Amino acid sequence: MNQWKVGQIKVKFGGYTPAGTSTPVTAPATPPARNPAADRARLQEIQAAAQGRDFNRAAGLAARALADGIEHPMVLNLAALQFENEGRYDDALKALSRAVELAPEDLGSRNAIGLVLARVERYPEALAAFESVVALEPGFAGAHCARGTCFEAMGRLKEAEAAFKHALELQPENLGAMQGLANLLSRRGSHAEARPLAETVLEAEPNFPDAVMVLAAADAAEGAAERAQRRLELLTGDERLTPQQRALAHGQLGDVLDTLDLPGEAFQAYAACNMALWRTYAQMHGQGPGAADFARAMLDHLDAIPPEAWSTGGAAPVAADGPKTHVFLMGFPRSGTTLLEQVLASHPDVEALEERETLADAQRAFLRDPGDLSRLARAGEAELAPLREAYWARVRAEGAEPAGKVFVDKHPLNTFRLPLILKLFPEAKILFARRDPRDVVLSCYRRRFAMSGSAYQLLTLPGVAAYYDAAMRLADRLEPAMASHTMVVRHESLIENFDAVVGEVCDFLGLEWTDAMRNFAERGRDRAVATPSGVQLSRGLSAEGVGAWRRYREQLAPVLPQLAAWTERFGYPAE
Questions:
Q1: What are the tens digits of pLDDT across the range 149-192?
Q2: CA-CA distance, 305 to 345, in Å (whole number)?
Q3: What are the residues whose beta carbons fall under 8 Å from the beta carbon of 569, sequence distance 6 or more?
Q4: Is 42 inside a domain boundary?
Q5: Is residue 135 part of a domain?
Q6: What range defines the domain where residue 402 resides?
Q7: Model's pTM, two decimal places?
Q8: How far apart are CA 113 and CA 119, in angstroms?
Q9: Which residues pair with residue 406 across a beta bridge?
């Protein structure tokens, strides 16, 4: 079990018992051959261990009792804890589901289902479990806090903030919610507000990982990088850290060492972070062909499809409640898509959506396998129309209201979905963010993304370079079909000559220039950017990342030859 006290919302036994009620331990109905008195004694022993907070012993006793045929909600709940400790998550979920069958109003078991699902990063399902707990007991602060954690993991930061704040209203001393709110404030660069919350958590639990990292971020932002370094080095040595926590601490230490102009040491910290994550997620994302392999297979199939297949056909029907202009903003992670999206989102006539899987239904229909591209190329309106409707349904489900607006659907990885976009929305405009490939690859390697198959590809330099190469080759292959309605936005040019470049983008999209777009940083803080760019954008326009690769030339040497063709093609200097 996690030994951090601030994680008490993860204790699964007992859950929440409303005032004035109790949950007595009684023996379940048993076959005649059982000894009810002996079963009752075992249940009482398990309950005593749990009430004494010796959960490891209670869980072990419960697992043995369950194996001996004693089926009781408390036994199932604690046995699930034992299964979870052993990495048997499916068995844990089965035990907890059975506990809910036996006692539908047992909040502890319902809450535990959510916590197990969250642990295996099945966040939408976990959120549903916590919602069921809140429906039964709206005053359970722990469930509201857990909802906030799910929302944060899903990139729904405003909802996460609301959930954490509500948990604190219900229980002002709830450390989990306090830390969750501190994390969100730190992510948006509000370090002065995050600091006291993290300090309160550390008073209760010294060296708690998230709190230390929030304070280290605040120290670094205030120019006290050496203090941040000391905090993080102490944290990485704490034996209580999970592999993910230790990895993230190493990653943040890399950022601090970078600010101290120690690129060699910083790269070692980034490597420690990424290799730990690579090992941790190997079973989930490292089995079989990776994201770059899939992309390369797409290219092979595109070779067999006539280029005109992606540029022929009539215009897609325009719904009465559709957008004035439909825009896809893509490129590659860390190419400047978030900056451009934030600038556009500051315009009153723009509705922007940040990195939501709006094309999920179309992907299931036509991009589950690279070979599906041939079917997609032949698809007619009867097949495409339902997928187009599903797209707009997802857009609105995510809270966007595109009607009458210039609607910007921003997702850097939509480059890999270009065949879908060209078939479904042949008249949509495309903004393609471009940045020096060497800075892109370095930045992807240095940043910590929410884990996915694509993010797993970014944990090694060869993996990032291969994935980038596949993305650029795919865009290049489809360039004839997209060129007439595509604008490439060079990140360095946007930084150097903001007004001129943004003006050109406005002309391309049919927008009038507004000074509000210069205030994108303030707007971004209100919108709660979920990507790793959030903190950087909160500080406004900055050229600090331009040419950063030169300081890491030695470390990047193995992949520079692979990137050289794109560097030259895009007009970036060799040195």
A1: 999 999 899 999 999 999 999 999 999 999 999 999 999 889 99
A2: 37
A3: none
A4: yes
A5: yes
A6: 323-436+484-569
A7: 0.86
A8: 10
A9: 325, 350
